[in-house]
Amino acid sequence: MAEKLLDFESPHYLHSLFGDDVELLQELGTHLDLNVTTRDAWVKLEGSEDRVALGESVFADLEEARRKGGPINAHGFRFAVTSALQNDPGDNGSSGVSDLFERRLLAGGTKPPVTPRNQTQLKYVKALASHDVVFGIGPAGTGKTFLAMAYALDQLKNRKFDRIVLTRPAVEAGEALGFLPGALEEKVLPYLRPLYDAMNAMLDRAEASKFAEKNLVEIAPLAYMRGRTLSNACVILDEAQNASREQMLMFLTRLGEGSQCIVTGDPSQIDLRPKRKSGLLEAIRLLEGVEGISFTRFTDVDVVRHPVVARIIKAYDDGREGDEG
After folding, report:
1. What CATH fold (topology level) applies to the domain 119-324?
2. Which of 43, 285, 287, 305 suits a disulfide with 309, CB 3.0-4.6 Å?
């Protein structure tokens, strides 16, 4: 048996490392097979030597995250524990919760900056910063659309792009938007509402209004993109699983000088008939490994909504696999 006493500058600082939730320390003990006790400004770890070392690394990671200005909540604490268990001790590239705060999007406003919340989101944000075309693929609630919007708005604020173009297939209307009442924006707004919701969650009202008034954020149904060349723009295609193969090729070839393309979609939610006609499935098959293009795949464990959402997604996926079998 080994033990380690970790002393901190104050009880308040120590409590900030576990979100002032003592039950999280109990979780730490359970996952790392440690006896964890705390009082005042110290934590004592008791267990095997390697497990005590893991516990010490968790607190070192949490301290580094605090130094980088990241608030520690239950999600962040659990991420630090999971990272400690998964990291290779000899791997200098191992990462933890502190690495999530190195990528801060939309910092400096009245609302808190957007940061990745897990390893997959961190990989996704890194891909956005280094590739011309980025695919975010996976189930609802994993943050792929939210982070795409945060990145696009961050780049727009920093004048890396002149505008953002949001588009989405209008499958339910069969792309026959001309038969719907109202102007074009009124017709497509229901399809793009999730993107607008994400934007309003990240920006204060005055800034969001400024972007709208200056037409810095443009919305357009996917069917209306044909024939255009989009330069100096960040172009986001949401719900890409419902784009046809022809539409996907058309969209990807709209990219002009100084532009970037972000494609988000969930292959398990294809509304097209037959499903094999999905342009997202074809893009995944044909573009994997192409220079300048990155694919980030999210799974149910990456869901950042209510914990039950991840369990619902997994249950449905398991059930569908059984039906197909």
Report:
1. Rossmann fold (3.40.50)
2. 305
Q: Within the chain, which residues score under 50 in pLDDT? A: 173-181
pLDDT value at residue 55: 95
Task: Render the burial of 183-199: b for 16+ CB within 10 Å, e for the rest.
Answer: eeeebbeebbebbbebb
State in Å, rounded, how far the first CA of the chain is from the last one: 49
Is the separation of the CB atoms in 232 and 259 below 8 Å?
Answer: yes
CATH code reported for the domain at 2-90: 3.30.1370
CA distance 44 to 56: 10
Peptide linkage before 274 cis (omega within 30 of 0) = yes
CA distance 174 to 170: 6
